[in-house]
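thought: fold this chain, then report.
action: predict
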Amino acid sequence: MKFSDQVIEWIESDSDRMEALELASTLGLNDWCLAAGFVRNLIWDKLHNKEVLTPLPQSDFLAAKKYYLLYLC
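observation:
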């Protein structure tokens, strides 16, 4: 399996990250992204076999040159 496919699988199996992606997609923006920590922390945790993933209390959401914060409750 390619590493990129593995990362996608990890994201798809993480309910908090999927919730953030689904929430972002409902905003109807043409161009947006979530900051690097969104993926980096997950990869770090998986590669270091952490049983409990690093919490995702907030993610930086970037859109149209403005910065928004999505707070996950």
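thought: worth noting. The first strand starts at residue 32 and ends at 34.
final: tokens above.
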